[in-house]
Every structure is written in structure tokens, then in C-alpha cells.
Specification:
242 residues, mainly alpha, Cytochrome Bc1 Complex, Chain D, domain 2, 43% helix
Length: 242
């Protein structure tokens, strides 16, 4: 009887040893393996690592526009968003994220980012039935008309010359204009910036929303204020160094 028990114990021990051969001590399990950076498709991770520093941890804005703004998401389509994320915006602080443009993200990851932004923050009723000016300009702006538009809609917050006012920052500042594209200006004017706060195209004058052409003209006026060498507050001196 003791011999039978001993034999049974040896069989059980052998089976246990054989079962453990497929998993060496210290070897990670499948569930604990790290994904390659290019395989990460989870929105929270992608957004946190690539977008949150400028657009805010919850899409509410920061150095760049809020992506959780329902007006913004109502006027911009997925194609335009993918282009901006993938290729960046030349002449601004928005870099290219797509691998084909020198970034680190695959096309699938960009799709995951854009799809996640829209599925989380887009609202079908974001415009409350209003019809905003289109995302992209449909005509050429006129800077002379744009100055008048600026004085009508923008002066009260940003000052007569755009050098800041009681409720708005300097928007004719050379450094500011060097860091924002014409499309960025247009987007901000139409969609507003709830984080600042800044009205959207309907709120500058009660019951008098801005038209498409007015937005286009004021962007043209602001663009005409750009300077060749921004960020130089002092005039060049001809005197020799001391």
C-alpha cells in the first residue's frame, strides 16, 4: 500500500514539473507583456501622451484651443482634423504627428485619436440650431473692411488696436500672430474659447452674429499685422557695444 502511495506521489510530482516547464521562473505572462509604442490604440493613452499638454487633460484647453468645445467639433470635419494631427500646421506650434511626416504615430493611432475626440466630446445639439460660418474661408478677405469689423466686434475686449483690453489679450502682438495660422484665427473667432472665456461668432454683439465674410475680413486684417521678425521689442541700436 505504501508503495502504491509513493508511486502516485511521484506521478503527481512529475506532472506538476512538466506543467511548469512552459513557464520559466521570471518569464512574463502574456497578459503582462508591454505593447510596442506603435501598437497602442487606447484613446486615453494616446491623448495623454500627445495632446493633453497643449489642449488640456480633459480637452478643455490650455496653450491651444479646447478640443471638447462642441462648436469647434460641429464646424470641423474628421478629414480636416486628421490632416492637422498628421501633418501639423506649418508656422505654428502644432507639430506633425504622423510617421510619414516625421512624427511617431501610425495612421491607425491618428484615427483612434480623432475618433475618440469626436465620440467623447461631439454633441449633435452643440450649435443649438444655429448655422455658423464654414470652417474654411470661402472667399478672399479684405484687410480694410476687416479693420472696421474688428472695431465693431472685437475692440470692446481686445482694445482699439488689438494691444489688449479689459477682457481680452493682445491679438496684434507679433509673437502671438507668428504662432497662429489664419485658420487658427478663423477657428477661434467662430468657435470661441470657453476656457478663456471668449464668445463664439454669435456672442460678440447680442442678436448680431458675425457673417462668413466678416470673419474672413477680420482674419485678413489680423494677418496683415504680422511682422517679419517677431519677438524683438527694442529698436536696433547703431551704437557700438560698451
Amino acid at each position: 500500500m505504501n508503495a502504491v502511495r509513493s508511486l502516485y506521489a511521484l506521478v503527481v510530482l512529475g506532472a506538476t514539473v512538466l506543467a511548469g516547464c512552459g513557464s520559466s521562473p521570471g518569464q512574463p505572462q502574456k497578459s503582462s507583456e508591454m505593447l510596442a509604442p506603435s501598437d497602442v490604440l487606447e484613446f486615453g493613452t494616446l491623448y495623454g501622451e500627445n495632446c493633453a499638454a497643449c489642449h488640456g487633460a480633459d480637452g478643455r484647453g490650455g496653450a491651444a484651443i479646447p478640443l471638447a468645445n462642441p462648436v469647434y467639433l460641429a464646424i470641423v470635419d474628421e478629414t480636416a482634423m486628421r490632416v492637422a494631427v498628421g501633418n501639423g500646421v506649418r508656422g505654428t506650434s502644432m507639430p506633425a504627428f504622423a510617421q510619414h511626416a516625421g512624427g511617431m504615430l501610425t495612421d491607425k493611432q491618428i484615427d483612434a485619436l480623432v475618433g475618440g475626440i469626436r465620440s467623447r466630446w461631439y454633441r449633435p445639439d452643440g450649435l443649438d440650431g444655429a448655422s455658423p460660418p464654414p470652417y474654411a474661408a470661402t472667399s478672399i478677405g479684405n484687410p480694410q473692411r476687416g479693420q472696421g469689423v474688428y472695431l465693431t466686434y472685437c475692440e470692446v475686449c481686445h482694445g482699439r488696436k488689438g494691444e489688449s483690453g479689459p477682457d481680452g489679450s493682445a491679438i496684434t502682438n507679433g509673437s502671438f500672430l507668428a504662432l497662429i495660422s489664419d485658420q487658427g484665427l478663423r477657428t477661434a473667432i467662430i468657435a470661441g474659447r470657453p476656457d478663456v472665456p471668449m464668445h463664439d461668432w454669435r456672442g460678440y454683439i447680442p442678436s448680431k452674429p458675425m457673417s462668413d465674410q466678416e470673419v474672413t475680413d477680420v482674419v485678413a486684417w489680423l494677418a496683415s499685422r504680422r511682422v517679419a521678425s517677431p519677438g524683438q521689442p527694442y529698436a536696433a541700436s547703431n551704437s557700438s557695444p560698451q
